[in-house]
Amino acid sequence: MSADTVTTTIDVREIAPRMRHPLILQTFLDLTPGQAFLLVNDHDPKPLYYQFNAEFPGLFDWAYQEQGPDVWQVRIGRAAA
Description:
By secondary structure, the protein is of the alpha+beta class. It contains two helices and four strands; from the N terminus they run βαβαββ. A hairpin with a 4-residue loop joins strand 3 (about 60-65) and strand 4.
């Protein structure tokens, strides 16, 4: 588990599905290396993990903090340089 500093929490449960990934990706891009944010969702965001792995290989950390069944929380960090 990485020691990234969590700078914000994004709860996407009330955000329109088509708006979720752009918001999450922009939040990630706004991080500086060593920072992270907490993603709160109502389902396993595994497809998002695959998107991050395709677009940012080796540049992010992904750590589940809570794994359902009703709430999923993932700490997503920008890897330190």
